[in-house]
Amino acid sequence: MKIYEHQVKDLFRKYAIPVPKGIVARTVSEAVSAARSLGSLPVVVKAQTHAGGRGKAGGILVAATLEEAKAAASALLGRNLVTDQTGPEGQPVNALLIEERVEAARELYLGLTIDRAKKCPALIVCGKGGVEIEELARQEPDKVVVEHIDPAFGLRPFQASRPFFSLEIPPGTVGALASVAMALYRLFLASDGSILEINPLVLTDAGAIVALDAKMTIDDNALFRQPDLVSLSDPGSESGLEAEARRAGLNYIKLKGNVGCMVNGAGLAMATMDLIKLAGAEPANFLDVGGGATSEMVKEGLRILLSDPDVQLLFINVFGGILRCDVLARGLAAGAEELSVKLPVIVRLEGTNKKKGQEILAASGISFVSVGSLKEAAERIKCEMARGRPA
Amino acid sequence: MILVDQETRVLVQGITGAEGAFHTAQMRQYGTKVVAGVTPGKGGSPHEGIPVFNTVRDAVRETGASASAVFVRPASAADAVMEAADGGVDLVVCLTEGIPVLDMVAATAYTAKKRVRLIGPNTPGIISPERCKIGVMAGYIHRKGPVGVVSRSGTLTYEAVHQLTLAGIGQSTCVGIGGDPVGGLSFVEILDLFEEDGETEAVVLIGEIGGTQEEEAAEFFRSKGTKPLVAFIAGLTAPPDRRMGHAGAIISRGQGGAEAKIRALEDAGVTVARSLAELGESVMDVMSARKNRKER
What we know:
Chain A is an alpha+beta fold. Helices cover about 35% and strands about 25% of the residues of chain A. Chain A contains 13 helices and 19 strands. The longest helix of chain A is centred in the middle third of the chain and has 20 residues, at about 170-190. The model of chain B has no long low-confidence stretch (mean pLDDT about 95).
């Protein structure tokens, strides 16, 4: 789960990580009064979206006057911001963060993440900031310093300061920067972070340290013990069908193609998408109904697939294990009774109670093509798509 | 055959829960020696004739259990793994899905320190066909034979095993290493065990997007692999920054994409099946080529 910049900065304040003065605005007039009450111009008007790359996409504007602040707010609020980290549909801008402008003498990067290979948290510091860390690592590999954190001992003070000494930071500032790193690690642990970044972390001419931008991703598996963070989630940032699927307990991701697929298991669902692509078509979605799916959930899954106007063909691929084929078939049959299924449907059932599942489907009145293997499925998809394609 | 055999004595943590009870019955039916259960607070009252203990330490002392299957809810599962590692078993198989990553960071550091092998979490488990199953996979699709299988995905493993069995190719051991970002035994560690195993003649590796384990497996194969390796990688069409079901299956910041993994494996000389539909055939080709070489 991701939270917004202004929400991360509220957490920073609690952990004594210095941030610029700022006020959240949800309307143009709120934005103007926020700019006024900050008491100094210029101000920075920042679109609040979960995806990064806002600056380059025009989502962060500097306003020298209240008039300019008003214009910036009108331009950003209500718009869908498309960045290189969003899809072409972008993400809606429903809130702005109006901040005082901070002049940077130097920009750094400071981040925490989990190093999967080393199975521990890692502190990452870069002597340059303001650009994506991957880009920084490409441009200036010598300026990226990583400290692996032993989970039994936590981030040690020497590790929190060592990277800054190697980056030609004025020695008088290193202590304060190390304190920011230590505080960031405490927040990372306390909030079950998977990524927590300050980029840029700014040094001013006056010698102050300010976290100018902040990003945080929280481990979805840990949300059960993070009720305060869950209350910060914004379901509005998800597309309609994805939110509906989530409520039904389904794992659904909308994609660009037109072959809708329903699969059990995340790995098989991905492999099924790939199979569709190899057959010369494009998957319309990822849909994992999961091992514990009920007939009700399958029915809801079918409804979601049919609600997607892009879908021209359905491919149901299930390897029954914990989810039995008859349970799946009953859900499909019930769904088909309520929703008229006019699209071609290809079904491949394998595993537990396969025969029973096929019988239920045959009796359901859904017109579908049953295939025995994945190879056959790929052939059918190819053939159906060729037939359906306008000449 | 690696890690588990007909002599493996299994204890089940969470044996009185719904999942634990169901799969204990299934494992016994398959022939696994389930010798003990552990549910804190329910020690002393047997479950279906299996003695139940409050602690892993008691269970190991009383029954000589050598492996543990963890069917404990996500909030307590990492603690159960650590208790097992401290309690005296050699192998812990953690089936639980949805454990917080930071909990697994602690648990993997702990098991490593105790020199206990951990499989999972979020795995279908491990099976040496016709001898021992510790997990939730359907036993009947497996046959005993010469091919080792290692995978990050559950249903994809079933699919692969099914194709192998239909093609008349049995399996030595099938290991699901799990779909989480941080877990126990890695692809490389399992490949190393298959290399040493006399029964295993070839290995199937099923990877997916996210992380660097497939690339590390490629490097292992290049430097040490003597047995043919056939791989399949799921997620060629996965969009970046979206978690594809498994917590570990995410192309994060342009890293962990399927193309790069396939390239690394092919460069190292691994046979990569581009389509899941062709995985069984690829293994058949590799096996018959090996047989021909042997006969010549």
